[in-house]
Amino acid sequence: MRAYLLTMLFAAIVTFFGTFATLKISHKYKLYPQIRARDAHTRPTPRLGGVAMFLGFLAAMAFSASLGWFHSVFAEPGRVFAIIGAAALITLIGFLDDLYDLDWTLKLAGQFLVAGLLAWQGVQIVSLPIAGITIGSFGLSFIATIFLTVLVMNAVNFIDGLDGLVAGVVLIGTGVFFTYSYLLAQQTSPTNYFNLASVLSAIVIGMCVGFLPYNWHRAKIFMGDSGAMLLGMLMAVSALTVTGQVDPHVAAKDDFLPAFIPLILPLAILILPLLDFTLAVLRRLRAGKSPFTADRQHIHHRLQDLGHSHLGSVLVFYVWTALISFTCLLFFFVVSWLVWVIASIGLVAASVFTVWPVIKRQFIQNKGSQLNV
To answer: How many domains does the chain have?
Structure first.
């Protein structure tokens, strides 16, 4: 664990100071766009935080490679370099989009190129999570990997509309995923539980910790498409590498459900972003528009319309992300019926918190009506 904590800390420090430098350079050369109608902020704010996050990722990868603990992780340099190359390419695409607002077809083509590069270099779904059953063929695995990677990148990018939203959601979700992958590796490979999925998760955690102080409401800088797509890609890669490095069936022989955690957990963490992404695409296609046309009807915007403050809307996402991801993780530790009891209690609490502005308004209206009577 010490090696992972050092990696997190190093990523956080580099990202923190990298963000500071990026912020200063952006203001010096006015590298920020004009405020748009759908934006929640009211003053011009740089959107190049993803560049600093990439620097944190790159530095942390180099740092972890220098540690003897992670020797087995970097024993396959081809795959590692593919991940670094894909991260550099998606950051570049996002950087250009943040500055010049690329056409959505060009950006989507770039995402498919990045996902294809990863799959081509072996970063792909290797097996289903039950007793190592292969998913079918290389071609099927290749296509599924590309689809999942592009889906996760866009899901994360679509919710990047409020201060601290993406960084916090990814931090919570990846923190849970790191815990799962670390404990699972300990059980399946007790002599060497260092694995690529945990390393990448640790780095992502550090990146978010280092960036969040600048992105908390009121944000001094945004991560932009470069940061959101980078985080989405790394989350997808972490999930994909788990399927090839460990066999959850070995760690969960007595319970069928935990065997699916490697595939359920990454999607569960992003359930709200995926829902937002799906609704946005359907909404825009129904209106005869491009699925990537921007609007102000995302879930976080609707939460504000419901009565939540900027911070309150962000906290709703945090609460639901924590509830769903921790519930999935609990299946790894305790019996299923107890997990469902805990999840039910959490579901009620999260639901009340989500609609609290409506409940509060109704209470005030009822109280006012009684006083008038």
So the answer is: 1
